[in-house]
Amino acid sequence: MASHTVLPLLLLLPFLYAAVADDAAPGPSPPGGELNLTSILESGGQYSTLLRLLQATQITEQLTSQLKNSYDGLTFFAPNDNAFTKLKIGTLNGLTDQQKIQLLLYHVLPRYYSVTTFQTASNPLPTEASGPGGMYSVNVTTTTTSHLVNMSTGVVDVPISSTLSAKFPLAVYSVDDVLLPEQLFGTSHKGKASAPAPAGQAGAAAGKASARKKGGVPKSDVAAVPVAAGEEAGDSENTAAGRGSAGWTTIAAFALIMAVVNLVGA
């Protein structure tokens, strides 16, 4: 009697082991094509200055690497060419290479934000830029009627002018002014840049490590997936569900093995 029961149970074991292995495996990285910030900016047609800076500082390589190893995604604010012409003459040339990296990383938020989820975010929002005083941050204000999102740095106030791409895990928004961190430029009148702070005061940027510093936005403050993109939200929910189910599948497999052992012993 016991032998007739044991055989079907033994046949089920390989399937249970396969299920446990699938559940324990890490989720797939997002497709590389969706992470190409350079292609998104090139398609926009008015970001040549920004593209040159990104290439010179190799920031795009860093962001691509982060996206492949993060489930939170990234948000990038892209100043157009006209935005750079508004800067005082010599502003960019007055920056050290390290300060240029800090300036670019100040345009990166270490989470994916749709226009809708900006409304639930808690100020200040941390950026990827940092210095001796800690992580650089921005403040965001929104309106429920027009869905206008305005960024305030303490030096300039600028709204998002258009959406270049908003598909998780990467959102890219166009802005008509360069976001100037107060830590580098000090306080000034809106829309105008003061002379950059000396390199000694600005300190070394910790761009690659900034996403791991304390002070990040709590997960309860903003959704990591866009509200308007149903299929993207579904993917993230399935990933989370897969992680949680591994424990239950393992327990079920263990219980079945014990049952087989007991039947064989009987």
TrEMBL record:
Please state which protein family the record places this protein in.
Belongs to the fasciclin-like AGP family.
Entry keyword Signal: yes
Give TM segment ranges: 246-265
Q: Name one GO cellular component term.
A: side of membrane
Membrane protein topology class: Lipid-anchor; GPI-anchor
Superkingdom, taxonomy of origin: Eukaryota
Instruction: List the protein's name.
Output: FAS1 domain-containing protein
The upper taxonomy is:
Eukaryota, Viridiplantae, Streptophyta, Embryophyta, Tracheophyta
- Signal sequence region: 1-21
Identify the residues that the record assigns to the FAS1 domain, covering every copy.
34-179
Its annotated function is as follows:
May be a cell surface adhesion protein.
Q: Where in the cell is it found?
A: Cell membrane
Q: Where is this region: Disordered?
A: 190-218
